[in-house]
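YM 10:42: Alpha-1,6-mannosyltransferase sequence, as discussed on the call
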Amino acid sequence: MLIVRVANFVHASSGGLRTALRELGRGYLAAGHQAVLIVPGPRAAEEETPYGSVVTLPGPVVPGLGGYRVLLNRAAVTKRLERLRPDRIEVHDRSTLRWLGSWARRAEVPSTMVSHESLDGLLRLFGPGRSLGLRAADRLNSRTVRAFDSVVCTTGWAEREFTRLGAAPVRVPLGVDLARFAPANRDPELRHRLAGPDQVILLHCGRLSAEKEPRLSLATLAGLRSAGVDAVLVVAGDGPLRTALMREALERRLPATFLGHVADPLLLAALLATADLALAPGPIETFGLAALEALASGTPVVARSTSALPEVIGEAGVAAGGTGAAYAAAVRGLLERTPGERRAAARAQAERFPWSGAVDGFLSVHGLSRTPTGRVHVADPAVSH
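YM 10:58: structure's back
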């Protein structure tokens, strides 16, 4: 079966979505599929990768989003899809690619929309207010449900904006690379470079943009230091707020190190395993791959109570409100546990989310399953063509 995925807002320094696309594609290939990914870029290109063929079509940069591009030329996307003749289409952006549901229906191709963001949450943060935002989100989500054969959500939290409409999305949690991210990556030399021997290392790993609320990590650091906790903050990530955050840290004399986007996978794995605690301040995260990678590395997480992350981190972390004081209190609570207890609980929670489980879940949504030999058969003939 040829599964064609189409996604926007993906580039070399993007995080969770890029990871999910890569790992799902790798899993589809291992299960006996062909996998093609269509994404926007500065120019047309094609390449073969370990996670399938990647087709880049020209797309403009969206102002103010740190270099993200979108596929706006529907004719070019349609032409490529017609050439590929997919057996399944999987769409990873419901804000600008919903029209692909109509294309799939005309082409008689089973279609799936994967909901990676909370439209309800985004409209509440940046829209006209809660009541108007809810109504707008409901209208747009209803169109998504009508346009696609199935909608996938990664958590129960993410499902709720669809289930309140009477829709029945399929829940498929994402996964984590348990071999790549592991407590054994803890690096004493790296720790020595980042902090003093008795300092607490907080790690913020994620995009520095408004919807992620990274300023809360600085507020957490300030609250801890005011309470006498000798903590430092390491920020791994880039985005439009980076300059402002660096300036604020300097003005407030907060010991924060900004690494920018960490492209070296070995360094990223070492950072996640070496930190004492990870901070995930985003208020509308629908899953939180960076937090799960921290858990796999043996590092507990303080997550925003308004997001889906409490579902993911379980007892391996703490959910907190959106203030520096609340986050600082959560950090102090975690620090009361012994390092061994914290790290063992984090790793055990992450082991509940292998990528193999996510791949099997997505295959099931597509009406496919893998056989013991890795060959794939159609589970429901009614959805094949």
